[in-house]
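Quick one:
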Amino acid sequence: MKKQDYLDHLVGVFGHPVAENPGVVIQEAAFRALGLDRWRFLTIDVEPEKIADAITGLKAMKMRGINCTIPHKLAVIPYLDKIAPSARLIGAVNTVINDNGVLTGENTDGQGFMIALAEAGLSAKGKKIVVLGAGGAARAICVELALAGASHLTIVNIPKDMALGEGLVKTLRENTQIVVDYVPWVDAFKIPADTDIVVNATSIGLYPNVDDKPNIDYDTLSTSMYVQDVIPNPAFTPFLQEADKRGLKWQSGLSMLVNQAALNITMWTGLDPDKEVMKKALKEALS
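Output:
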């Protein structure tokens, strides 16, 4: 008689807030399609001051890995054993792999963003880009854009987090060829007329603040620009609504999320998931 194995292989996401994160829908659909019936994805609310405890719990329960979302992408780093080179350059981690108690930090934020950009038919090469925010997602996106040959990057961030913005600019100038500026975000930011791509890499618009939108002068958006949001839920944020009614091409954070999730699954399981299955599950869940 074949020995039965009822052991669950656990992965998930640490965040705060995190209840609106639809990662579980995407991941578990992929697991089922791959025949990984004992894999489970857990959505776990971890308050900022509890991240050390959460990592201890991850090890104790032999979780195979975890995603880190707001506000843990920077805070988790001191508790890891290894950091992948790209994640080290970015200075933020959104994926942790547990290899028999050895925790390695990776970053798929920027990679997922770049795949989404390509799916929209765009290349970053030679483009002038405005990125709103300088946190974990913004860092990953800016590094990937710079490495992909973008010509000019403007990073806009609130003054109280000026050190984050200035640190990101320093990293980019020392490690890439991109021309980069930092702008303190004190008033409604006017998007320069020659901008090609505008990215909201902040948490503005994320549940429960679903009516909030970044403080920019929306009349400075033009139809020659492409707009990308990183917020996956709600997908059609007020930021994107403003872009849509002005006739701009745009994409929500859903595509970026699916691409990140696919990369995560490969890192955790060694298998390549079916992204169409993942997209279908996500659309059904949010319809």
